[in-house]
């Protein structure tokens, strides 16, 4: 209808109705978008559940599953470390067993050698282990005679020493300085050492001795000795320590000292002698004779060189 031919009130009424219809149409569309139907809600819930089930079936992990994996990894590492510790412990144990076995073999070998040495005399004949008391007393008497002969031939001089040395020592006898380790190795060397020691000692006398008997072939002998020293004594003479060190401080002046010998006999002859000078008594003797305080330190040092 042409608006120009319409009554104004009619036109306004119709126009208002159209505007109201246009206004209500968008509002209904928005309401439909914000309020889905019950069917749509059910479909959404089903899809969500299906998606969750799919994740679970495809290996999706939970926090509890992660913790189990980490614990398994820690256990595996711990097992590896324990295996390594066990391997090292077994190796240390085997090394220790090998060492003990080697040491045991060494000791058994040494014991065998010592047993052979003990069971044989210097001349190669076996020792009679079942020695009677009477036989032992007889042997002790012969050994005492040998020690008395040592005293005599040393005090009487070189000719007597050379003539009787073979009655005192076995052919392969040894005399050892217990501190320096210097050694005389047979009867000829022992005789020669006695000869050249006169360049150290201007006088050497055994005043007395005592014997502490041990096994049937062993004794500890304590010698009481008086000696005097040459001022220019050489240092190259074996078994002359510490006397060649003291010599420059004493000009042929007699002084006493004590010496201990650990002696091993072969029957009634000396097969081995290990000598030790009694340092305390020697120091007491030489200090009492020294009147120059400035030399005291040198004297003490010289005597100390013979101490263990």
Automatic annotation (TrEMBL):
Keywords: Coiled coil. Residues 18-70 are annotated as: Disordered. It comes from the Eukaryota. Residues 31-65 have a biased composition (Low complexity). One of its GO terms (molecular function) is DNA-binding transcription factor activity. Residues 90-117 form a coiled coil. PROSITE patterns: BZIP. It holds the Pfam family bZIP_1. Residues 72-118 form the BZIP domain. InterPro entries: bZIP, bZIP_sf. This is BZIP domain-containing protein. It comes from Aphanomyces astaci.
């Amino acid at each position: 209808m042409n608006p120009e031919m319409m009554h104004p009130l009619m036109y306004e009424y119709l126009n208002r109705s159209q505007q109201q219809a246009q206004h209500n149409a968008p509002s209904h569309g928005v309401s439909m978008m914000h309020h889905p139907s019950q069917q749509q809600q059910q479909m959404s819930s089903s899809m969500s559940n299906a998606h969750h089930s799919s994740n679970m079936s495809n290996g999706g992990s939970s926090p509890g599953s992660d913790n189990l994996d980490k614990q398994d990894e820690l256990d595996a590492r711990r097992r590896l470390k324990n295996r390594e510790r066990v391997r090292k412990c077994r190796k240390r144990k085997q090394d220790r067993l090998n060492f003990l076995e080697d040491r045991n073999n060494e000791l058994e070998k040494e014991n065998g050698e010592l047993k052979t040495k003990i069971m044989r005399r210097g001349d190669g004949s076996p020792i009679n282990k079942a020695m009677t008391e009477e036989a032992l007393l007889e042997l002790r008497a012969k050994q005492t005679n040998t020690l008395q002969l040592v005293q005599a031939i040393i005090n009487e001089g070189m000719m007597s020493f050379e003539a009787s040395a073979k009655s005192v020592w076995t052919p392969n006898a040894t005399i050892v300085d217990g501190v320096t380790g210097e050694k005389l190795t047979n009867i000829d060397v022992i005789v020669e050492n006695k000869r050249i020691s006169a360049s150290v000692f201007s006088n050497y006398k055994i005043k007395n001795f005592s014997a502490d008997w041990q096994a049937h072939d062993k004794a500890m002998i304590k010698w009481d000795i008086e000696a005097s020293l040459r001022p220019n004594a050489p240092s190259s003479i074996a078994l002359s320590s510490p006397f060649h060190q003291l010599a420059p401080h004493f000009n042929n002046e007699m002084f006493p000292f004590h010496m201990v010998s650990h002696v091993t006999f072969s029957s009634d002859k000396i097969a081995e002698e290990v000598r030790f000078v009694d340092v305390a008594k020697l120091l007491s003797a030489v200090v009492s004779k020294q009147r120059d305080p400035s030399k005291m330190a040198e004297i003490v040092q010289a005597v100390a060189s013979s101490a263990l």
